[in-house]
């Protein structure tokens, strides 16, 4: 299919960066935001308040009108995971039952329903074709046009390829896949594990502990992914291991930074107040799903317990360090 026009819902840092991506790929781009002030800043000054210092391409049409976005050949939902349902609901009347791809660009699991992002899209927009974009990417890097590679998955292989070509350029390389669930799990789980990695850094437990945490965290991600049908190549690829390595090693990551604050002694409420960290909403859901499916995820469970106030940091660390010795898997 021909994808000449891209609509982006969400004029925050990630949505603004993806609008630049689509323009660089030669598409016509409409960027929707609910805040008229932010949209005005993009339209007049060429800069999003959420992505300061990075110019938004002048060819991006910024608007508060959802109908203009719905005329696109594909729509990117670039909003936080817990806001994806309201965004899809707002899009539904304007889409008028058109069968176009709607791509989730959030990394998480809906807190109250335990649905993955493409499942939310399917529930709200039954005529749309759900897809997911995920991988090791910071909005500032992508917005500037620094080299980035991600995974774009859709159950329809031809459509996954078409979407990858529609967004791909010399500096933004989407690898296409049909493993939707594997891609979604990588993005959701790595945020929770990044909080744990930040705690290790904030507690000054050392580089060896950080490496061990990331490695054992990946083992958890892979177990959970396999239990839900994710493919090995997806879990070890960009949207799994790749995104985990990035998020567990940089303070640009909101989840890692939140973990650092926790490790330094901040309360969960204070640590999460500065910037939205998706992992704080996903942790309990991920731990519950793992427990229900008989998947062992002690690091993720410890993060959930800390965020829920059931364990303090030292108790969580002790719970992990005193686990029985076992063979590596």
Give keywords.
329 residues; alpha/beta; 8-stranded mixed β-sheet; 52% helix; globular
Task: Write up what this structure looks like.
With 329 residues, the chain is α/β, with parallel strands linked by helices. Strand 1, helix 1 and strand 2 form a beta-alpha-beta unit. The chain is globular.
Helix- and strand-based class? alpha/beta
Proportion of residues in extended strands: 5-15%
**Major beta sheet summary:** 8 strands, mixed
User: Low-confidence runs (pLDDT<50, min 5 residues)?
Assistant: none
Intertermini distance: 43 Å
Radius of gyration: 19 Å
For the largest beta sheet, what order do the strands appear in spatially?
Answer: 3-2-1-4-5-6-7-8
Helix content: 40-55%
Strand segment count: 8
**What's the mean pLDDT score?**
94
Order of helices and strands: EHEHEHEHEHEHEHEHHHHHHHHH
Tally of individual helices: 16
Q: What is the general shape?
A: globular
What is the strand and helix layout of this fold?
Blueprint: E1 5-9, H1 13-24, E2 28-32, H2 36-45, E3 61-63, H3 66-70, E4 74-77, H4 84-95, E5 101-104, H5 117-124, E6 129-134, H6 139-144, E7 148-154, H7 157-167, E8 172-177, H8 180-202, H9 207-227, H10 232-235, H11 238-247, H12 254-263, H13 268-273, H14 279-292, H15 298-307, H16 313-321
Parallel strand pairs: 1-2, 1-4, 2-3, 4-5, 5-6, 7-8
Antiparallel strand pairs: 6-7
Helix pairs in contact: 4-5, 8-9, 8-11, 8-12, 8-14, 8-15, 9-11, 14-15, 15-16
């Amino acid at each position: 299919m021909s994808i000449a026009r891209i609509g982006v819902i969400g004029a925050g840092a990630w949505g603004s960066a993806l609008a630049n991506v689509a323009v660089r790929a030669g598409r016509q781009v409409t960027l929707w935001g609910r805040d008229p002030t932010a949209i005005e800043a993009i339209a007049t000054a060429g800069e999003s308040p959420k992505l300061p210092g990075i110019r938004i391409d002048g060819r991006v049409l910024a608007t508060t009108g959802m109908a203009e976005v719905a005329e696109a050949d594909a729509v990117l939902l670039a909003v936080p995971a817990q806001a994806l349902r309201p965004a899809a609901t707002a899009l539904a009347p304007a889409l008028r039952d058109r069968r176009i791809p709607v791509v989730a660009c959030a990394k998480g699991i809906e807190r109250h329903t335990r649905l993955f992002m493409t499942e939310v899209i399917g529930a709200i927009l039954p005529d749309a074709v759900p897809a997911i974009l995920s991988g090791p990417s910071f909005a500032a890097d992508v917005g500037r046009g620094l080299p980035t590679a991600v995974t774009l998955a859709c159950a329809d292989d031809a459509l996954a390829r078409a979407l990858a070509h529609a967004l791909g350029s010399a500096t933004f390389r989407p690898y296409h896949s049909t493993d939707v669930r594997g891609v979604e799990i990588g993005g959701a789980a790595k945020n929770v594990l990044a909080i744990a990695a930040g705690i290790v850094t904030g507690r000054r437990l050392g580089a060896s502990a950080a490496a061990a945490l990331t490695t054992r965290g990946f083992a958890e991600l892979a177990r959970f992914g396999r239990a839900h049908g994710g493919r090995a190549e997806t879990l070890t690829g960009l949207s799994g291991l790749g995104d985990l390595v990035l998020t567990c090693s940089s303070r640009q990551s909101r989840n890692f930074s939140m973990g650092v604050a926790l490790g330094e002694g901040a309360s969960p409420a204070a640590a999460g107040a500065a910037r939205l960290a998706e992992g704080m909403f996903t942790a309990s859901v991920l731990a519950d799903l793992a427990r229900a499916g008989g998947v062992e995820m002690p690091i993720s469970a410890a993060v959930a317990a800390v965020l829920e106030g059931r364990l303090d940091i030292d108790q969580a660390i002790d719970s992990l360090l005193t686990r029985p010795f076992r063979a590596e898997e």
